Amino acid sequence: MGTEEIEKEMNAANWFSQLAYDRWVPIPVSGARPSARYKHAAAVADDDGKLYIAGGSRTGRYLPDVQVFDFRGLMWSSLKFKSKVDGGKGEENGAPEVLPATSDHSMVKWGNKLLLLGGHSKANSDSMIVRFLDLETHACGVIETSGEAPVSRGGHSVTLVGSRLIIFGGEDRNRKLLNNVYALDLETMTWDVVVTKQTPPAPRFDHTAAINGDRYLLIFGGCSHSIFFNDLHVLDLQTMEWSQPEVQGDLVTPRAGHSGVTIGENWYIVGGGDNKNGCPETLVLNMSKLAWSALASVKERDPLASEGLSVCSVLINGERHLVAFGGYNGKYNNEVFVMRLKPRDALRPKIFQSPAAAAAAASVTAAYALAKSEKLDFSKLNLNSNGTGKNSTEQDLAFEIDALKEEKKVLELSLAEVRAENYRVTEKIDEVNGTHAELSKELHSVQGQLVAERSRCFKLEAQIAELQKMMESLQSIENEVQLLRRQKSALDQEIERSAAQRQGSGGVWRWIAG
């Protein structure tokens, strides 16, 4: 490594270390930048400190390139791959393209490879294709999979859980919205259909997904062809049951095209919009407490208030940073933004996040220390050989021990109070859970009644439509009757005139004959 490169890395490290916490800042990039885009895929490799961007869309055109941003030198470069199919020989001329221009796909780092799943492209495929980019050999290709693969789609979510990828939702190439779940075992490259219970989220695309505790899959936001969502759904991967829990904290506006990344128990959500306005706030969801909070906010026309942007986390100088790229908010963007994250309580053990539990732990620690102090062997202490000094020292120690005993009693009382408070809180939690269960039952009952009323309304509307048709036919019949009446009246008048004429002509002939 040359002196110039070392100086660049040192300058970059100094630049990141001077950033304020929880604020978005554009990175000063040297050299050429990649094409502005949105709906691309992004991933970070912490081992080499680089951000990888693949594909995307710009002015209706899909992009086929792979771009790399180096956080050490703050420079972009284009990555060239050697195409291989099924890990075998290189492609021959005329062979199908293995890294086509793609948009609305997903990318996950697995070992030394980047895996690209799904997306929209001009290449036709009935089922989802899994491609790989080898970061060491720079080979790329299609991975052969087995099992029941999901249909080809874009705007879906892909979440890494252990050695499995969980795929949810999306939009197929016929614009059909999906809400099914599939799993891909990365050890065997086998697809499985995940059969779930309870009510799943409505079909959607351009949502985000996250995993909490390797057990709970969270789905947030997204849209259908007419509705934008701000709901949160949870799939328990052990029981395979969907639920829609209540969330706390700040009100979250509906959005799609946003991006998210998890760090510990926090899920960071950036960007998105509703095709009219971008979402300017950076949200944080505490996945254990299910509480939303706004971390930062930008102007509505800021590149960070865009749809189709990407956000990842990167380790710089031992600290976690958020890094965002691209998006569309009336214009396509290609800036790189970074946020230095302030360390949060989520990194501490859960027991210390509760004030009552923390007080109890402190009391136990103090009591343990006092118990140890009472067991000290005073015969081993090096006291003054003078009898008076010895007696004085022993008296002082006795006073200190008595004081410590009194303090121990106080701490034990405090510990008892904390335990009682914990018991009361537990009872309140049980009461709230019971109330929640009853309210859920009432809600299901009301929902059932609402469905019945809707069905009844539909039937009434159908009957009203039939009656309206009958009324229309009755009106036409009445019009015909009126017409017949007028015709009859005219006919009666004609008959009367004819009779009168015949009667008048008969009288004249009788006068002539007489």
Notes on the protein architecture:
Keywords: Acetylation, Chromosome, DNA-binding, Isopeptide bond, Nucleosome core, Nucleus, Ubl conjugation. One of its GO terms (cellular component) is nucleus. Pfam families: Histone (PF00125). The chain is of the alpha+beta class and 514 residues long. The protein is 32% helix and 28% strand. It has 3 helices and 32 strands. It has helices spanning 3-17, 355-374, 387-513; strands at 24-26, 41-45, 50-54, 57-58, 61-62, 66-70, 75-78, 82-83, 102-103, 106-110, 113-117, 120-121, 130-134, 139-142, 146-147, 153-154, 157-161, 164-172, 177-185, 190-194, 208-212, 216-220, 232-236, 241-243, 248-249, 259-263, 266-270, 281-286, 291-297, 310-316, 319-325, 336-340. The strands form 8 sheets. Strands 15, 16, 17, 18, 19 and 20 form a 6-stranded mixed beta sheet that branches. A 5-stranded mixed beta sheet has the order 8-14-13-11-10, with no helix packed on it. A hairpin with a 4-residue loop joins strand 23 (232-236) and strand 24 (241-243). The N and C termini lie far apart (151 Å). Residues 1-6, 86-96 and 346-390 have low confidence and may be disordered.
